[in-house]
Structure prediction request, 458 residues.
Amino acid sequence: MTKKLYIKTYGCQMNVYDSARMADVLAPLGYTPSDTPDGADMIILNTCHIREKAEEKVFSELGRLKPLKSAKTDGDMIIAVAGCVAQAEGAEIMRRAPYVDIVLGPQTYHRLPEMVARAARSASGPDGKGRGILDTDFPAEAKFDFLPAESVAPGVSAFLSIQEGCDKFCTFCVVPYTRGAEYSRPVAAVLVEARRLVAAGARELNLLGQNVNAYHGEAPDGGTWGLAQLAYAMTEIPGLERIRYTTSHPRDVDEALIRAHGDLPQLMPFLHLPVQSGSDRILEAMNRKHTAAHYLSLIDRFRAARPDIVFSSDFIVGFPGERDEDFRATMALVEEVGFVQAFSFRYSPRPGTPAATIEDKVPDAVAQARLLELQDVLERRQRAFFAGMIGRTLDVLFEKPGRHDGQLIGRSPYLQGVHALAHPRLIGTIQPVHIKDATLQSLGGELVLVGTDEASAA
Ligand code: SAH
Ligand code: SF4
Ligand code: F3S
Prediction:
């Protein structure tokens, strides 16, 4: 009998990847993905703990699921909470939402079928009480060794997790606590998965890791490969047209990676390289272990290797002790780099992290004003970058049908969404598109018909 599985994903792309893997491990048990929670036999919330708001969302969503669970008459509903809130607050979830059946951390997904079997054997308590199954271990075995192949075909652009965890302990961040120590998957396993994804139709791979450029995988030649070496090897996979990777840390950028951007046309000229702040004093308090000048020198070196490369970043404003001059340094760095996209956040104190105990808090109103000022500049930059594409011809990798009839959507090399009228057989191919219009988030254009009379007449 097939059973309906609804997974709701919060947080970063690692969680998106993990949600797909959880669906894979549950497929042999008869669970098929559903896009609504109504009537689902199992619901998984794959949660994020990075900021306070992300955590609150989980508890309010659980509140909404409770009546669905009690209302289900045809069999039972298993509610599981996975991901980083589960890892950090497992016991608290069980206390505040006792109807939750399973709480599991990011490193135990491969054990999910066992947990589901245990849950199914023990009846739900009176009033929909949960089964209290909690597994937030950091097991010695790597979950990757136990995960099956994809149960659902990958899209044209697919995620591939190559590295996980973090040993950097930036003072504001929960990731080292929720995801555990840095771990790189072996090169051979990564290449097998890459080939499989490409054989199943992927044309672009987005290599994922919390510190993806800290990748150091055990290689078949007995050595250890960095991200650059892995990228060179991937370019030998026939049919793989584009490679991206995220998220990188400035400290782990090495000469080999910069050189790879110059050598490999498959490495896309868009790099997410979070800097967080432009002030050396704040960078130090954050334990980022690099200066603003070092960051700028990396940008210059990437540009020298690949002149059309563009950058995006994450920023935190209102970090404890941030003075106006620190914030000005951030604004100056933004001007200097000219990011084409960015995420910016107000500092959110996270329990158990060193920065949460720093006394010198920035008043909310000040942090909020800084955030708005920063976002205003970042948005103007992004708008200008998108508008600057009008009149240019971009190579677009088409991924899927668009919202309107006859339209396809895809991405430019710079990760911009682009729509154009095009035949569905062009999905999975890269086509030149002449850009006609732009919004803050997307581009629209017309296919340039290569090899036709029109093209040769032009
Ligand atoms: N590994 C990546 C970041 C992962 S978290 C890196 O090192 O850059 C994603 C982003 O969330 C961070 O870049 C940071 O900007 C933001 N973030 C993390 N912890 C935060 C906190 N406590 N408050 C506000 N923003 C935070
Ligand atoms: Fe968090 Fe810093 Fe690790 Fe990124 S490098 S995941 S910000 S501790
Ligand atoms: Fe959130 Fe965990 Fe990712 S805290 S950002 S889901 S690593």
About this structure: The chain has three domains: 3-135, 143-387, 393-457. The pocket of FE3-S4 cluster (ligand 3) is lined by residues 11-12, 14-15, 48-50, 83-84, 174-175, 178-179 (CB under 6 Å). The first helix runs from residue 13 to 26.
